[in-house]
Amino acid sequence: MRHHFLSRSVQFAAISAALLVSGCAGPSGDPVRVIIPRGATFRVAADSMSSAGVIGSPLAFRIYARARGRDRQIQAGTYVLRHGTRWNDLLRAMNGGVGVINRVTIPEGFTIAQITPVLVRALDASPDSVDAAVRDSALRARVGDPAATLEGYLFPDTYVFAPGTSAREAVTEMVKRFEREWKPEYDAQAVALGYSRHQIVTMASIVEKEARVPSERPVIAAVYYNRLKDGMLLQADPTIQYVLGRHTDRVLYRDLAIDSPYNTYLHAGLPPGPIASPGGASLRAALAPASVPYLYFVAAPDGHHEFRTSLAQHEQAKRAIKAERGADSAAKLRASRGL
User: Fold this and answer.
1) pTM above the 0.85 mark?
2) Contact 307, 290 (CB under 8 A)
3) Fold of 12-96
């Protein structure tokens, strides 16, 4: 029995040494696409790479991977690879999803309108199929979303979708990612604040769109909670931009008159649902707002906000920032003229 074990050890060592030598010449030839389907075994992955000409012996490659304990961590996707790539580099790519074509990154603060074309391109799907997926009633019920779409629940992250992934499968995966981010203790925190999860996600989405300086997120959340507590209108510019369907540097007075339940300049309380996909930091800010008395804030040219407790102080801060913006514009104009 011991003799058999030693024989296998020698075999592994010999194959490993041969494989290290095989990678020394470096990658060569044209890049080829290798598809590793969702749920594929390492055997299937090795056979696919062999058929594409990336490796020679799929058996030796499997033994090499098994000897290093890296044959059970492969990620599905379409890889672009070359013959002659060191096998250790191939394993690193397969374990980490490096070089996968249909890798999708959804930034924090993206709306469904922004996410849809990203999924259409990545999945080679129709806009209608994505629209149907984000309106799926079962998925909305799953997260307790009373709104018409899953706005706010498609968690911003980097995803790798295998070839053939449907729009509903992709959207489901994004919802599951949200569910993993929403920790069990968050429910108790929401109850303590007096809000439902849907309302917390809605608040977090507004914070996500407002914040430019990460440390300000809990303070921004506190301002909005303070306004709700005092019966004030939220008057959150991002909700107007959501109604408009586009980002604007300045919200105009005529925009504030748009009749929409998402217009927080006209309607009291939170809007009916989230206005974007909040990240984890904004969710935590909405669940644990800062203990501050502020009711107002205004953005400075560098992106930070000036927070104030009274309207008079707020108006003063706005005048100071307006003067600062004017001085910055004048300085840039002088610089452009070489003065």
Assistant:
1) no
2) no
3) Dna Ligase; domain 1 (3.30.1490)
